């Protein structure tokens, strides 16, 4: 099956263009072919359709091969550009190649044309795949960077052989500072620990680094919390997640990780713990009998005064409902107590 080849030919000679077409058709191609001989005509043709390659003479009355190559570069189109000329010296040909031409062929040696075209078409495919891969990688990096920023995650890498930490910009935002204030993206492990880790937690960071270096598990991963120093000297908390990269000899060569600021969460947890401690202190020391109950009357907790009043252990009280603690059929209950005055009930829905 003949392959379709879309060729833009920069050539002033109709005869030479005819010979070129014959060579291409003989090489097994079904042609979509257009000849131009001026800059305006070439520029118009470039945007008219998609071309597979450009074949250009070197010298034309009102145009030239180098000028055609420069025009192509201005469009940012990545098309194979082959010079086919009958009057070009070796130095001129080398200069054209340095300028970006992919090959040059003498008009008297058109047998070289088909192999050159097939090679350059394949190279164009490789370049296009590489370009797409680079664009995809760039897009993925952008997405990752955005995700890290949204999640307030600071990424870092530690190269063991050089003892150097490498940080991203979000990492510094986590510490409430900037790359400019810190002095760059990299620093030694000793500098990182002394400048950004809370002194009493420095041993935690050193221990985790050593564990990651010494582990024989290639899938090793760890998560640990420790305190940090913001750039203003105040204390914060982070969760550090780290992973390792090993070489062929199973030696750890790099540690990578992400840090997440959990300061607000830790503050909330500490405030809740203090509130609970205060509640339990008041609950346990109150001289009033206090029960913590559900709406259905089941008892969740009782303070020591309640246990003393009812003559039961906490375990015994929690097995019964609050209304069963008092014999409401006893006349003494009605003459001496009002049920709601006997017990202070803290109900929990």
Written overview of the protein:
This protein is an alpha/beta fold. The protein has 14 helices and 14 strands. It has helices at 14-26, 39-46, 65-75, 90-99, 113-150, 169-174, 179-182, 189-196, 202-214, 263-285, 304-310, 314-318, 331-336, 339-342, and strands at 3-10, 29-36, 53-56, 81-85, 103-106, 153-159, 164-167, 186-188, 221-229, 235-246, 252-261, 290-293, 299-302, 344-347. A hairpin with a 5-residue loop joins strand 9 and strand 10. The chain is elongated. Residues 332-349 have low confidence and may be disordered.
Write the topology of this structure.
Layout: E1 3-10, H1 14-26, E2 29-36, H2 39-46, E3 53-56, H3 65-75, E4 81-85, H4 90-99, E5 103-106, H5 113-150, E6 153-159, E7 164-167, H6 169-174, H7 179-182, E8 186-188, H8 189-196, H9 202-214, E9 221-229, E10 235-246, E11 252-261, H10 263-285, E12 290-293, E13 299-302, H11 304-310, H12 314-318, H13 331-336, H14 339-342, E14 344-347
Parallel strand pairs: 1-2, 1-3, 3-4, 4-5, 12-14
Antiparallel strand pairs: 6-7, 6-11, 7-8, 9-10, 10-11, 12-13
Helix pairs in contact: 2-3
